[in-house]
Write a structure and sequence with these properties.
Number of domains: 1
Structural class: mainly alpha
Radius of gyration: 20 Å
Shape: globular
Strand content: under 5%
Number of strands: 6
Largest sheet: 2 strands, parallel
Number of helices: 15
Helix content: 55-70%
Oligomer: single chain
Distance between the termini: 30 Å
Strand order of the largest sheet: 1-4
Amino acid sequence: MSQVKFNNRHKPFKEALDARVKNYFEQQHLKELGNTRLFIKTGILLTAGVVTYLVLLLLHPAFVPFLLLWVLMGLLLACIGFNVMHDAAHGSYSRNRKVNEILSYTLDMMGGSSFMWKIKHNVVHHTYTNIAGEDDDIAKHPVFRFSPQQKWYWFHRYQHIYGPVMYSFTSLSWILFSDFQKYFTRKIEATGVRKMNFWENAIFWGGKLLNVGVFLIVPSLVFGFVPALVGFMVMHGVLGVTLSFVFQMAHCVEDTRFPAPDPGSRRIENEWALHQVATTANFAMGSRTLSWLVGGLNFQIEHHLFPRISHVHYPQLSRLVQQTCREFNVPYQAYPTFGKALVSHLRHLRHMGSVR
């Protein structure tokens, strides 16, 4: 494991926040996990995905509807990832561990790896957020320079232009490269990956084959290889762009920080919770529609502070977090709209590309 440590000996901010959140759930007689609204949403999204897939295969639509249905499939897979997989992988979907485990496999259906995700996201990203050399989410170097601690190359001047194009390859990268790199090196940045057991190996390889089989081979038998490949690429392109923007806008914007540990002690001079607030931003908190679609990931500050609490509670928790931030004089970064957060992300890319 990484040797970076936080100053958690005294953590008044987190202790005050934990007490406030605990009191909220007790007073409201609520569980911290998913509820009926989340279960209904899961049914809607999974049904919509299956129906869209069957319409593609059975109705043989014309070229334009064909492409639009693949676009819709990519968006639905992203929504399933945000709403279902993400909560399940954190163990916040259900009190039943088996339910959480099974629903986390929806990531394998998309071509990713739920095993690797739980390490790279739950452990590495949520612990070492925005720390270069530790956080795998900003480890896209040399293609991207997200952090001032990363080496500058001349082509980073243009990363705010080529970034959205490259983002379209995110989910394809999972299938073809990044998961395999982690699998064979057994390492995610500075964090080791334990050896997989038989079933974990079967799910890892089976998920890769399932994604290609369901979304490329079967459509090839119906439409021919070239149209199926076009649809496959469109679906993954939409999926990749959607995933990338939602996650990057939470951490790689103008107002978030990229702390560097002390070179000697490998220590961050902040308690972990304060580090999370400093490195994370919210966006479009007033949009119920966007919150529904992205699984509450527009409330990333709340998610990073309480990753084991389901996203259905984040709008209410945000009031408590903001109140606590005001009391401790801690900046709470939030962009009023999706568009403003997107612009801030592109500006951050441009700034990182212009400053050596």
